[in-house]
Design a protein that fits this description.
Layout: H1 2-8, E1 20-23, H2 35-43, E2 46-49, H3 50-55
Parallel strand pairs: 1-2
């Protein structure tokens, strides 16, 4: 599905090195599964949990609250 999107459904070339996926199914005890983390891995994308992305400085900005 990801490759189809990148090749057929997007007018912009996808840069996997600059792309990432944020999800809540990371295989932790409280999660409903690990499908988000596996999807990112299968697509070759960096994966962040919602806490990592929204509560920490993962994109290099000086201030994120």
């Amino acid at each position: 599905m990801w490759e189809f999107f990148c090749q057929s459904c997007n007018d912009v070339k996808v840069d996997k090195k600059e792309s990432f996926f944020v999800g809540d199914a990371a295989g932790r005890g409280k999660d409903h599964g690990k499908s988000d983390k596996e999807f990112a891995a299968n697509c070759g994308l960096t994966f962040y949990t919602e806490e990592e992305f929204f509560l920490k400085d993962v994109l290099g900005s000086k201030e994120k609250k």
